[in-house]
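Allow me, if you will, to draw on your knowledge of protein folds for a short while. The matter concerns a single protein, recorded as an amino acid sequence and a row of backbone structure tokens. Could you please explain, in whatever detail you think fit, how the structure tokens follow from the sequence? I remain grateful for any guidance, and I place the record below:

…
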Amino acid sequence: MQPYANNSGKSNVVAYYIGGDFIVVQFPHNAYYKYTYSSAGQSAIEVMKRFAQSGSGLGTYISTKATQPSHETKGLSLESVL
């Protein structure tokens, strides 16, 4: 997992893990969500990867109704969602 830079200081994203066709996002209290090409669409995943790497916008993108991606799985650890 890569720590999320949280450039705004207001994000609830803690860390992320990028794979070829997915991203796992960690939120507080060890909540891990895996978003994949099949659950959220390729373009959404690629946008999320860019936000994650830039340290800005990922939490807003995930929580905004208009862009809210669907997750494939969620769990209490990275291993449980991979």
Q: What stands out?
A: The first strand starts at residue 2 and ends at 3.
